[in-house]
Amino acid sequence: MSMAPTRASYRFFTALQRYCSLPSSEQALSQSRYVSTSRALSQKESLRPQSHYDLFPSSLPSGPPPNGSFHIDPSILRQEFLQLQARAHPDRHQGADKAKAEAASARINDAYKTLLNPLARARYLLSLRGVEMSEDESIAGSPADMSEGGGNGGSLDAGLLMEVMEVREGIEEAGSREEIEDMKKENDQRKKASEHRLDELFRAGDIEAARRETVKLGYWVNVGRALDGWEKVGDGRVSEHD
User: Fold this and answer.
1) What tens digit of pLDDT does each residue of 118-143 get?
2) Which of 29, 77, 191, 201 has the greatest number of beta carbons closer than 10 A?
3) Do 143 and 161 touch, CB atoms closer than 8 A?
4) What is the rounded distance in angstroms from the CA atom of residue 168 to the CA atom of residue 150?
5) Entry pTM
6) Would you call 140 exposed, middle or buried from its count of C-beta atoms within 10 A (0-12, 13-18, 19+)?
7) CB atoms within 10 A of CB 148
8) For residue 238, what is the enclosing H or E element?
9) pLDDT in tens, 64-116
C-alpha cells in the first residue's frame, strides 16, 4: 500500500512550517484571533494552525473547549504526535527546509507536552482566553506559605486550605510505603475530580472559576510530587525528594 502523503497532509505540514517560522508575537496574535473567531471560519480563511489543538486535527478534531472536551486520550494524541514528528524530522529535509523542519519539530514537541499534561493544558486554555498564569502560580507552594497569606492562599477557600494542610501532615507522619500508596490513590481521585470540573467550567465559559480550579489542581499535583518523593528514614521520620 502506498505511503505517499495525501494532498491534505502536505498542505497541513506546509502550513505548519509557515506557522513555526513566525515570530512569537505573531503566533500570540494568531492564537488571540482564534479565540474570537469560530474554528470553522478560521480554517476556511487560513491554512495556518491557530493553536496547539490545530496541530493535532485527527486527535482533537473539535478543538479546545467549549467545542471540544478538556479531556484528551493520551494514546491517541501520542500516535498523531509520532506521525507529525516523522514528517517533520530534520533529517528528511535539506537546506532552508531543514531549519524550518527543526522549528516545526520543536513546536510539535511543545504542543504535545502542553496538551498531554492536564495542568499545563489548563494553563494553556486560560492563556487562549487572555488569562496568563505562571508555573509558580498554578503549582502552589507549601501550606505554610498559604496560611501566612503568601502564594495563592487568597484563591482558595478555607475548607480546601485545611484539606491540603491535613494531607501534607499525613505525608509527614506516614510510617510505611503502604500508607503512601493509599494516599496516592486518594490524591489521584482528587486530580481526576479537578480535571472533570475543569471540563465543565471550560465548556460553560466560566473562566474565572476555571482559573481557581487550575490553582486547586496545582495543589494536588504538588501533593502528588511529595508522595512520589517520600522515603522513610531510620528514626521514623520521612524525607521528601523531588
Assistant:
1) 999 999 999 999 998 866 665 554 44
2) 201
3) yes
4) 17
5) 0.72
6) buried
7) 10
8) strand 238-240
9) 999 999 999 999 999 999 999 988 887 777 777 788 888 888 999 999 999 99
